[in-house]
Specification:
This protein is of the alpha+beta class. The protein contains 5 helices and 10 strands, in the order H-E-E-E-E-E-E-E-E-H-H-H-E-E-H. The strands form 4 sheets. The chain has a 3-stranded antiparallel β-sheet, sandwiched between helices. Strand 5 (about 60-65) and strand 6 form a beta hairpin.
């Protein structure tokens, strides 16, 4: 975005669109067809990020189950940082969003949840500005399906530590 004024006009459209959704807490310009790096988050307080840049992330991460207005009905478990330090064209200094060790010691459970949600929402929307969806980052374990069907007399290889054995499939079911 070339100017803060243009970014604020886009942010106003984002907040207007976000108000239409009962469960929405954040939105990015490209989600409403505007190819600009602007997003808004409204968890604890309304925040606008114009040309955002994450400058630091916490070492610690968590898995967070997320939903997205761009993907109705879908969810994904995404690895997120407990906090990020972010700067933007419209923010004079870097700000920290999410939770720190000090927050864990000093805040009640409800306040911690809100701060964590705000940090996750900022990270979620930031990746939208990069063209990434939560489904691209989903770490939900999916079952591995063996394409070959084994018969009771087929031989399979079993490895345990440094020992390798070849046995009949039927026998492997008993172990």
């Amino acid at each position: 975005v070339d100017s803060i004024e243009l970014g604020e006009k886009i942010a106003a459209k984002l907040f207007h669109t976000l108000n239409k959704y009962k469960s929405g807490i954040a939105l990015t310009a490209n989600q409403i067809g505007i190819s600009k790096s602007v997003f808004v988050v409204n968890v604890i307080r309304p925040m606008i990020f114009i040309n955002p840049e994450i400058v630091k992330v916490s070492d610690d991460t968590l898995l967070y189950k997320e939903y997205c207005l761009s993907l109705p009905g879908k969810r994904a478990k995404v690895e997120r940082n407990f906090y990020v330090r972010i700067k933007a064209l419209n923010i004079p200094d870097e700000i920290l969003v999410g939770i720190t060790q000090e927050d864990v010691k000093s805040l009640d459970r409800k306040a911690l949840r809100k701060k964590l949600l705000e940090g996750v929402a900022v990270q979620h929307e930031f990746i939208h500005t990069q063209g990434i969806l939560i489904t691209d980052l989903d770490v939900t374990l999916k079952p591995v399906v063996n394409e070959k069907k084994f018969g009771r007399n087929d031989k399979i290889v079993i490895r345990k530590d440094t020992i390798t054995r070849e046995i009949k499939y039927k026998l492997s079911l008993k172990q």
